[in-house]
Design brief:
Blueprint: H1 6-16, H2 24-75, E1 98-101, E2 123-127, E3 147-150, E4 155-158
Antiparallel strand pairs: 1-2, 2-3, 3-4
Length: 162
């Protein structure tokens, strides 16, 4: 019969599973690979977050527009504020949505494109974006990150894309 001594078992086990730690060089390479992957993934994640925020705003704009059109059909005029239709939700950055019913009296406050022509004829609806600031012309630095409704609802997106 063949039998092994405890010495041979221990030695055989030591060759099968060398229990030693990583060297400093191996650790630095592993950290470098993780840092490289994080550097590549971070912009993609930020882009994903921006797209989901814009999608949430587009959904809100659609719901607001339906409520505004229903109110106009009932009363014959646009409401003075979003509170009149019961809208209390905020944009993804926690700011209230901006709304302006366009009439001859307040046409000068309307949002304007690069040619300083109003972007809507019925009402303006927009989110001031992550910086929380905006200005009527879309070319202003504070307005470029706004999400707007333009061309009477045919365009909804970032002001810099309009």
């Amino acid at each position: 019969m063949y039998s092994r001594t405890p010495f041979r078992l221990t030695r055989a086990f030591a060759h099968a599973c060398p229990c030693r730690g990583m060297t400093l060089l191996e650790l630095m390479i592993a950290v470098g690979v993780v840092a490289l992957l994080a550097t590549l993934a971070f912009p993609a994640y930020n882009d994903y977050r921006d797209r989901t925020r814009t999608a949430a705003i587009v959904n809100d704009f659609s719901a607001i527009e339906i409520a505004l059109n229903a109110r106009r059909a009932d009363t014959g005029q646009w409401p003075a504020s979003l509170a009149e239709i019961g809208w209390t939700r905020t944009d993804p950055w926690g700011q209230p949505y901006e709304y302006l019913a366009l009439s001859n009296a307040n046409r000068g406050q309307a949002r304007k494109d690069r040619n300083l022509v109003p972007i809507n004829t019925d009402f303006d609806l927009y989110s001031v974006g992550p910086d929380g600031r905006s200005a009527p012309p879309l070319t202003a630095a504070h307005s470029r990150d706004d999400t707007i409704r333009a061309a009477n609802g045919r365009f909804i997106g970032r002001a810099e894309d309009f």
